[in-house]
Predict the structure.
Amino acid sequence: MPGIEEILAVAREVQARAYAPYSGFRVGAVLEAEDGTLHAGCNVENASLGLTLCAERGALVAAVAGGHRSFRRLVLLTDGEKAVPPCGACRAVLAEFSPDLPILSVAGEIRMEWTLGELLPLPFRLASPGRPEGGAGRP
Ligand code: THU
């Protein structure tokens, strides 16, 4: 099981690859899957602004594409002096797979922790056999 320093090292690497020429706000996200593997994402902005991709969803897409659907924790890394929680869209997309995911957000010396259940207490969900906990609905 990777330790927090190992996860933060991965977060620093991916944060450095963020493409954020419009906001200047670089975000690194690392999802730890149930088997201890780490899946990283960074924000990728777009000139349209509205088509910008968040780091958390990038990490989630990488993890799911790698065959992982159940996660132990999410670690976020940003600059500045205020640790940020995932945006609303990322909360909803993360809740699809791990509705009570522990989240650690780090900015400099500041560390904030939440669970996804605290940040999004009533997610929209449909039962599906594709989910970790299974279900009777369509895939
Ligand atoms: N951003 C993320 O990557 N994750 C979030 O949860 C919130 C915002 C990015 C999007 C954009 O590139 C920049 O941060 C400023 O909003």
Q: What stands out?
A: The radius of gyration is 15 Å.
